[in-house]
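Exercise (ungraded).
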Amino acid sequence: MKTSPQKEKSKIQIKDLFDRKVWYKLDLSAIVYPTLQRKDFSSVYRLSVLLKEPIKPDILQQAVNMALPRFPTYKTAIRKGLFWRYLEPNQRPGPFVQKDIRNFCMPMPFKANNRYLLRFYYYGCRISLEAHHSLGDGTGCMHVLNTITAVYLRLLGHEISDGYYVKDIEETPHPEELEDAYMRYANAKVSPKRPGEKTYRVRGTKEPFYTFNVINGILPVQDVLKAAASYHVSITEYLNAVLIYALMKKQESEWHFRLKPVKIAMPVNLRRFFPSKTLRNFITMVYPGIDPRLGEYTFEEIVTQVHHYMRYYINEKFLRGDITTNANTQRHPLIRIVPLFIKDFVVRQFYTKVQDRNSSAGLTNMGVLKVPDDMKPFIERFDIYMGQPFSSRTNCAIISYEDTMTINFASSIVESDVERYFFQKLVQDGIHVLIESNRTTS
Amino acid sequence: MSYCVNCGVELDASLESCPLCHTPVINLSDLQKFKKTTPYPTQTGQVDKVRRTDMAIIASIVLFATSLSCLLLNLLVFSANMWSLFVIGVCIILYVLMLPVIVYTKFPIYISLLFDGIAVGFFLYLITFNTPDKEWFTRLALPIVVLVTILVEIFALLLRSFRISFVTTALYFFIEIALLCVGLELLILHYHGEQLHLVWSAIVLTVCVVICTMLITLLCMRRLREAVRRRLHF
């Protein structure tokens, strides 16, 4: 088969990106994740797509091999420098697709798996992609998964066009896709202070190493939309309020000396506010919550509180200030010359003592996922898992596709009270919930 | 199609109980057709093993080269006494300590601890080449190393065999401290050829007995244990 000169040129350029001289600085968010790496913890998340027919592993492997070079920052290995870590192109064989496992989102040692920070799994009709957060965020990784799925379907003989999250595997990556977009927009004249309030922590019985408990709720988007509309808020605001309500009920049911604020750590996709094509991390955290020390909150009051908080804080100005604060830390000349092992120690301490205690749970909503029209007939739904929580709590990740919304709770503790309160509230609000789980204990 | 009678959620056909509230699913009309295909696999994965071969090779070469060069330096240049044996002994201890971490990771912890004890004993034996007599080694150093190794092995066995909590760990620790101090004093007296009796270790023993009694009381009385846990939680 003859290739066009344009495509020939593109191929050469993609090959150049894997040159030994090429390397990538970790982006502003990605700096933190490797420092939290422990023997029993890695910042790994999972994206899954459920197709309508069983997966053929050999074809999937072929699709991975064809599509992954299109994403040079994902086909990389992480290395240590004297002052910072960095990503360098990985030319070793792999990553190889493998049969799925029950306890997914396992720790990802940097030197294992031929140094790849990606893992591909298949089970029944499901293709799953696990990625270390230092490579990119959910939006970036969703491009990788959708492109691989499209190539897989093409290899099966279907006509699939590019668009939305499906990239043309023959084209050269746009330089913006590889950039650290934080640095382009971290230019506010003032650095607002980081929030630093201790919040309620879910106390639970830790599962043995390594157990990953998943409870997955499947809901019709229309039902959720109707429930959110009844409170005059958006779906994200409504679901945040339900999670805060569940955590509040959990706190009230436990023995406590005094109540603590309940806050949710919610990543915001900055691409909505700052135009960038980056496939690397480009998120920042906001912390909607309530303070029960001020008085008892009804659910309606929680919804109102969350609604106003989000409308007030999630805008271009506040977010710019937030990323400037983070970027200024990294740009500080004194911090830059401190050796990596000291930085690791300080960042880990800060994260454990301050950052992790800022929130009671994590919630991310990727929103409605769109795929090219000719791909729609082959896809049942998408799933997203935030991965193992750093401390004993529960993480919630939400994604919608067509009229199916999936809410995935992931935790490493035995108790599932938060999940129970959460889904019971949704049922009370008239939403039909179908539950799937990998929990076996009863 | 089954619904949880408690939570009101629909449950996947593979679930035998509600994962939210653990209420069992009994769908009388559908018992025969009960679908068992789970949405999640049942196979459990293992974390990939990291190959530390490069680190092991570098560490082994560095330690071996240090020992050999010091030995040669000792024999050919600074040959007044056998000082290089100190360096060689330290290198051997470091190598043995590193063994379970970077060379062979499947050692049971008891074997690793035994090797550590042997390495320390061997280091002390090498020191005897620079001292006028070897009696201190056979009558004092070796018994102390054996005693400490046995106590550490027992400590590891207790922690790995029984339920661990902060209180039980403290209990084991204080019992072992008491035994160690008593053993040390008796061995020192034996080395000096004096009559065996307890002096300073009796004080440590008394303090440890008081602490251990308190800890055992805590462990036996659940109400007290919970009260202490509540007041001391951090």
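Further reading is listed at the end of the chapter. For now, observe: Chain A has two domains: 5-176, 213-371+380-437. The domain at 213-371+380-437 of chain A is CATH 3.30.559.30 (Chloramphenicol Acetyltransferase).
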